[in-house]
Specification:
41% of the residues lie in helices and 16% in strands. The chain has eleven helices and twelve strands. The chain binds D-glutamic acid.
């Protein structure tokens, strides 16, 4: 493997638009970096899928980002990180791969009631990464896990605000608040798009943690440590790939974070996961290298 150039893009992927909550922090904090964002909307949501499928899709996406010349890959999806991060690092040795784990550590440092709530998908809570994070950082603090079925789907459907979202959020918040949680961790990258509603419904006494700013900071430190920071003032490029429809992604990216994504559609072939011996999942039209 030849070492990637510092001017190469950062690859970022998620099952859908959720990772844009991480993308916007990366772009804000690291303005000289180019990015290649991959949204696997053909398979969203990942959260209720079997771990084998999630690993399968994640590996194929990483292969695509590596092929496109990315110098680092951010798994901007708690679910894919929980299930596949270890596998991806083994599969792509020598590549800088950064995952997301629920921000239990800062929540434990912040709580005054000794109870923190974590909102995430079923697959995230089942993954080893989550268990290890809680084991390492929770100590005496009680961690209340709240599976948030359907919440990522609402964000994907472009309706992060309104009565339906409020009703769903209330049903997720009530058990955590009843248990005494005064700090709530957003353990899915889709959820920062409903953070205002969560704060409003949880009340001013509750701190809600969006991990995206910390992830962008950590990425900046890693790039520096590996001498991979993009040279300043060379111009940046941000490209977006989706396994769904480009027009839908562009509409939703504009709605959520106000950008003109001008995305490219890259359908899968074949479109269902197979056994490990079978034909690997490939993109019908792989992206051009940067
Ligand atoms: N955005 C993803 C996460 O952070 C997952 C949502 C989903 O596809 O279920 O967990």
């Amino acid at each position: 493997m030849t070492a990637p150039a510092a001017a190469a893009p950062i690859g970022i992927f998620d099952s859908g638009v959720g990772g844009l909550s991480v993308w916007r922090q990366i772009v804000r904090q690291l303005p000289d970096e180019s990015t290649l964002y991959f949204a696997d909307r053909a398979h969203v949501p990942y959260g209720s899928r079997h771990s084998r499928e999630i690993r399968f899709y994640s590996e194929a996406i990483c292969a695509c980002l590596v092929e496109a010349g990315c110098k680092a890959i951010v798994v901007a999806c708690n679910t894919a990180s929980a299930v596949a991060l270890h596998h991806l690092r083994e599969r792509f040795p020598g590549h800088l791969i950064l995952g997301l784990e629920p921000a239990v550590k800062p929540a434990v440092a912040l709580t005054r009631s000794g109870v923190v709530g974590v909102m995430a998908t079923p697959a995230t809570f089942q993954g080893q990464l989550y268990r290890a994070t809680v084991g390492r950082h929770a100590g005496e603090v009680t961690v209340v896990e709240q599976v948030c079925l359907g919440l990522a789907d609402l964000v994907e459907a472009g309706i992060p605000e309104g009565a339906d979202t409020d009703a769903l959020l209330r049903s997720f918040l009530e058990p955590m608040l009843a248990a005494g949680a005064d700090t709530i961790v957003l353990g899915c990258t889709h959820y920062p798009f409903v953070i205002d509603a969560i704060r409003r419904l949880a009340g001013p006494e509750v701190t809600v943690i969006d991990p995206a700013p910390a992830v962008a900071r950590h990425l900046g430190c890693l790039l520096k440590r590996h001498d991979l920071e993009a040279p300043a003032g060379r111009g940046v490029e941000h490209r977006f790939l989706t396994t769904g429809q480009a027009a839908c992604f562009d509409r939703d990216a504009s709605h959520l974070i106000g950008i003109d994504a001008a995305s490219q559609a890259v359908p899968w072939r074949p479109d269902t996961p197979r056994d490990s011996e079978a034909e690997p999942l490939r993109l019908q039209s792989p992206p051009q290298p940067f």
